[in-house]
């Protein structure tokens, strides 16, 4: 039988296993352009279906890039940098040059300097062992910075192929669609070819007669909060517009709840202000630390939302992590939820968040 590839995601079409990648009902095969059920639902109902790709499959695929002579474009979500950076990328992609692209600039408060952000991205990438040839900031959905990026890609690729890589949810499809519509042929520009030796497909978008831009499947990072909430909550926690920072003057032994998705206990330190950068749609609730355990046990999913009922079924138990914040301004980052700017001084905090969701400290971005 002829191999069919899904036009949407590049997976090989199969009609046997509805839970696996590339599933389409037999009736769908008669259509002129075949897309898998997952892409179909995404396109028509904006609904995301889980597929049981093993994480290793993705990494295995990316590893094939190391055998090519190409340019790699790694897209990250600047709202969730740690959650969206692919660790050990250089090992996966070999000696090929990497352009790091920070997406979703539209949600950053205007007070954030671009220059500082670019430097910060470069530094963080270096610390993660990724050497970058260039850094760009874009908003794929607002179509900002796409022209400059496209020119940079052309400049750096020197006639070679381009692989666009990223974790799920960073805006890769949005960017690729933007690049395609910019480069004329619109939808017709996509052809689907099968990348040799892979079990999953890369989507091939021809750049010229001899080279292509490849869209790769999104790498799943288990510490992204996105994997533990319902589709409805995912829309709530993902900022859609410029974040309006919310400032709280706290005394020690006070707690902030971020919906019912995480909480911060300010255990020790001088009275000072904490600035929260989260989706505007996550309500923040302030209470006494004394009261916080009781609220955690009784009010999550009730007074403290999101999570909704579906998220509650998926969400791992909370885990408490203690941080003693070093000198200088720092952010506590809860991967996928946002960050809190912590005042300078000797501050001790406990962060309670679903197990697996990464919580980290960084030098303040703002
Ligand atoms: P993919 O999983 O990497 O292919 O990501 P998608 O392109 O499907 O985008 C994931 C989510 O991020 C969607 O809700 C998009 O609407 C949103 N998104 C993509 N680009 C941007 C952007 O530039 N700004 C904002 N605010 N959201 C974006």
Automatic annotation (TrEMBL):
PROSITE patterns named in the record: G_CP
NCBIfam families in UniProt: GTPase_YqeH
Checking InterPro entries in the record gives: G_CP_dom, GTP-bd, GTP-bd_ribosome_bgen_YqeH, Mito_lipid_metab_GTPase, NOA1/YqeH-like_C, P-loop_NTPase
Specify the CP-type G domain's residue ranges.
59-222
Pfam families under this entry?
MMR_HSR1, YqeH-like_C
Report the domain of life of the source organism: Bacteria
Its name, as the record gives it, is CP-type G domain-containing protein
Q: Which GO terms describe its molecular function?
A: GTP binding
Q: Which organism is it from?
A: Salimicrobium flavidum
């Amino acid at each position: 039988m002829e191999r069919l590839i899904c036009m949407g995601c590049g997976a090989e079409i199969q009609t046997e296993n509805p839970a696996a990648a590339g599933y389409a009902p037999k009736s769908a095969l008669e259509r002129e352009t075949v897309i898998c059920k997952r892409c179909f639902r995404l396109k028509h109902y904006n609904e995301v279906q889980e597929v049981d790709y093993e994480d290793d499959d993705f990494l295995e695929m990316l590893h094939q890039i190391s055998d090519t002579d190409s340019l790699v474009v790694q897209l990250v979500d600047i709202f969730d940098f740690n959650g969206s950076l692919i660790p050990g990328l250089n090992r996966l992609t070999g000696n090929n040059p990497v352009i790091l692209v920070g997406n979703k600039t539209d949600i950053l408060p205007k007070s954030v300097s671009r220059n500082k952000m670019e430097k910060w991205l470069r530094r963080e990438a270096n610390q993660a062992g990724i050497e970058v040839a260039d850094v760009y900031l874009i908003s794929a959905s607002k179509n900002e910075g796409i022209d400059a990026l496209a020119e940079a890609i052309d400049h750096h690729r020197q006639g070679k192929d381009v692989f666009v890589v990223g974790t799920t949810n960073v805006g890769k499809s949005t960017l690729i669609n933007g690049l395609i519509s910019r480069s004329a042929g619109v939808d017709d520009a996509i052809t689907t070819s099968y990348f040799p030796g892979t079990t999953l497909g890369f989507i091939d978008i021809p750049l010229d007669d001899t080279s292509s831009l490849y869209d790769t499947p999104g790498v799943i990072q288990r510490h992204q909060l996105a994997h533990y909430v319902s589709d409805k909550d995912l829309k709530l926690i993902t900022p859609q517009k410029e974040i309006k920072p919310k400032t709280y003057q706290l005394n020690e032994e006070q707690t902030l709840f971020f919906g019912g998705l995480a909480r911060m206990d300010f255990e020790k330190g001088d009275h000072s202000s904490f600035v929260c950068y989260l989706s505007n749609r996550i309500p923040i609730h302030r209470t006494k630390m004394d009261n916080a355990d009781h609220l955690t046990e009784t009010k999550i999913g009730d007074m403290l939302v999101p999570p909704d009922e579906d998220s509650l079924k998926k969400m791992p138990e909370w885990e408490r992590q203690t941080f003693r914040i070093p000198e200088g301004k720092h952010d506590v980052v809860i991967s996928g939820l946002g960050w809190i700017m912590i005042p300078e001084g000797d501050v001790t905090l406990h962060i309670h968040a679903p197990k697996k969701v990464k919580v980290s400290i960084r030098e303040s971005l703002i």
